[in-house]
Write a structure and sequence with these properties.
The complex is a heterodimer.
Chain A lengths: L2 H42 L4 H33 L5 H17 L4 E12 L4 H13 L4 E4 L2 E3 L5 E4 L2 E4 L2 E2 L4 E6 L2 H16 L4 E14 L15
Antiparallel strand pairs in A: 1-7, 1-8, 2-3, 2-7, 4-5, 5-6
Chain B lengths: L1 H9 L4 E4 L2 E2 L6 E2 L6 E2 L11 E4 L2 H9 L5 H9 L27 E2 L1
Antiparallel strand pairs in B: 1-2, 1-5, 3-4
Classes of the chains: A alpha+beta, B alpha+beta.
Chain lengths: 229, 108
Amino acid sequence: MSARPRTARRASRARGISVWLIALLVALVATVQIRSEAEVERSLVGIDSTSLAFLIDDLHRANESLDAEKAALVRLRAQLQSGQSGAADQVLTDEANRLRALEGLVPVQGPGVVMVIDASGLQALDLQDALNSLAAAGAEAIDVNQRRVVTGVPVTQTRDGVAIDGVVVVPPWKISVIGDVNRLAAVADLMAQQLRADRRVREATYRIDSDVVIRSVISERPFVYAVAS
Amino acid sequence: MQDVVNLLFAQGAEGIAVNGRRITPLTAFSGSEGQIVIDQGTPFTAPVKVAAVGDRNRMQEALDDPSALPDIRARQVQFQVHLTFEGSPDVSLPAYDSSLQIPHVSST
């Protein structure tokens, strides 16, 4: 017997196995995709058209943000590949500064709105709702009466009133917010209208500011329990 | 949901995920009619699973406190909302899976 037919058989078997492996992989990907689509579809059943429109709008915005991030990362890669002295240090410093601003650890400034709410009897839940509405409108930094707020800073009800991170904030509440002015102003306008209809509220106003300065910062707390996995 | 997350952070939670979605400093909650949307994620309904990493005793005590979460306690009676919790020595949280850009903010 010559070695050639055996080699040919082996090659043919290997091809067969490859085809099966590829078919299996395609089936797996298709199953994951179908299940994922079904899951999304299930989650959207019963949702009203207005909420759906908001969701689609949010998704578009998230996609745009991811595109911008992708472009920034490409630029970053080019910068790092340039091999210029200090390039990596600069990139790391910029990223650390950005994350510190995001976490509320450094003073920041930028365009935004400043709201003033004067009322008696508003509760922590009211302030939480207001801050959440602004966060949903893309707020990138928030300050209430010189107290910096990010998600994770507790807003609680105490005997003496509403407290941010344990410190009571006495009305009038001056809420300074940095972010997309158009989106923030639309939400601030709606909030001001709703608040003015509330009997407890004496004043609810807002103004657009091209340069809101937030000097308050959150004290850095080292993690005790959480470790990166 | 916002209340529960707020309570856990107030009790020293160092990381939280709601139904597998990681809470970030920029997170916002929305939704209507029993549906919850976190940031730009897909909407979800009950049951909602909140996972938190932090001081287990503090968080458990706070969740056990009948005077905490008054809104949810009221709904337990009104809408039969069930709130249960359990401690674990090792809770894993997923990483945030979207963008955290802050294009309008600059350091002073």
